[in-house]
Amino acid sequence: GNTKVSLYEPMRKHTTMLVGGPAQFWVEPGTFECFSSVVKYCRERGVPVRVIGRGSNLLVRDGGIRGVVIHPSQGVFGEVRVDGETITAGVGVRFKKLASVAQKAGLTGFEWMEGIPGNVGGGLRMNAGAMGAETFDQVLEVTFLDGDGEIRTRTREEIDSYYRNVPELRRNFALSAKFKGEKAAAEEIQQGMEESMQKRRSSQPLAASAGCVFKNPEPMPAGMLVDTLGFKDVSVGKARVSLEHGNFIVNDGKASASEVIELIEQIREQARSEKGIELETEVQI
Ligand code: EPU
After folding, report:
1. Does residue 147 carry a pLDDT above 90?
2. Per-residue pLDDT tens over the stretch 26-40
3. What pLDDT is recorded for position 1?
4. Best substitution site from 212, 228, 233, 243 to test ligand 1's pocket, by max atoms within 8 Å of Cβ?
5. Per-chain mean pLDDT for the chain
């Protein structure tokens, strides 16, 4: 179909952190079948294959990515359809777009998605969330490629989801999902959208970042912990801990992935030695 392919595609162009070396083979499929054939081709030959959505919670190393990187963003992957109180979206649809489609359709439940920079695919894989809500609160079913590259659909009850973790979607690539909403008054939805925007503007940086770096650990939110450890505004090269929010690392301009990783390691080390807290990254490295 309208599949696009390129060689040595720079990943800094495809991540919001604006860092990362090249992907050896970059493929932008336009149909489920094309996505499936590429996965089958790679699996049969032992070629590493991974998927990158909007790259908004992702840190690609400076050495780049060996093998094939699939970027489902165009064609069927960018489609969104409202049907009564449900919305079906391809994995290439932005969460922000989903929030605005829901608002136009008079559906509530999607307002928090206004604050999520990523695409549906990444959000499903990590069970993205904000404002006390998370992706799987609203999923009815997910269509994905199984380990053999076959297209399957499962209901939410058949998929285990946890805080920022959906084990099944680590190996199986999501293609689209159906979400449920509820009819509500326009003013109520508008108010939710505004709260979501307000929360982001008041506490999160505008500079290039990969969203929250760490998952919130048990005793206190990661942002507060990093703040308490005195890491705000600390930098390694051009990578710096945001002054606005301790759980964000911003790219001051020409940061490299290794500078960002070094800063992450310094924070983890200090959280471990000073507080006995083992921080886990939320960003995929
Ligand atoms: N705090 C500090 N110092 C800081 C940052 C935060 O003391 O530098 C305090 C805040 O005052 C607040 C608490 O820590 O009392 C929690 O902060 P916040 O309300 O900003 O929420 P969060 O737990 O840090 C979570 C999600 C965000 C999401 C927001 C908004 C995680 C790891 N993060 O942040 O998600 O946008 O709630 O609802 O669960 C992301 O996943 O990439 C992300 C940014």
Report:
1. no
2. 999 999 999 999 999
3. 57
4. 212
5. 96
Reported as half-sphere exposure (CB side, CA atoms, 13 A), residue 192 has a value of 23
Ligand 1 nearest-atom number relative to CA 131: 38
Specify the length of the chain in residues.
285
pLDDT over 70, % of the chain: 100
pLDDT at 47: 97
Atom of ligand 1 nearest to the CA of 226: 8
Residue type, position 165, single letter: N
In sequence order, the 6+-apart residues with CB closer than 8 A to the CB of 102 are 82, 87, 108, 109, 110, 111, 113, 181, 189
Angstrom CA distances, 236 to 129, 223, 224, 245, 261, stand at 29, 18, 20, 17, 9
**Residue located nearest, by CA, to atom 20 of ligand 1:** 203
Nearest-CA residue for ligand 1 atom 33 is 212
Residue whose entry in the numeric block shows the structure tokens 């963003």:
73
Distances (CA, A) of 226 to 154, 156, 183, 207, 267: 39, 34, 40, 18, 7
Residue 247 Cβ < 6 Å to ligand 1: yes
Helix boundaries (H) for the chain = 32-45, 95-104, 120-126, 168-171, 186-203, 222-228, 257-275
Q: What ipTM was predicted for this assembly?
A: 0.98
pLDDT of residue 148: 87
Centre of ligand 1 to C-alpha 3, Å, is 38
Report d(CA 104, CA 150) in Å as an integer.
34
For residue 153, list its beta bridge partners.
143
Residue 178, beta-bridge partner list: 88, 141
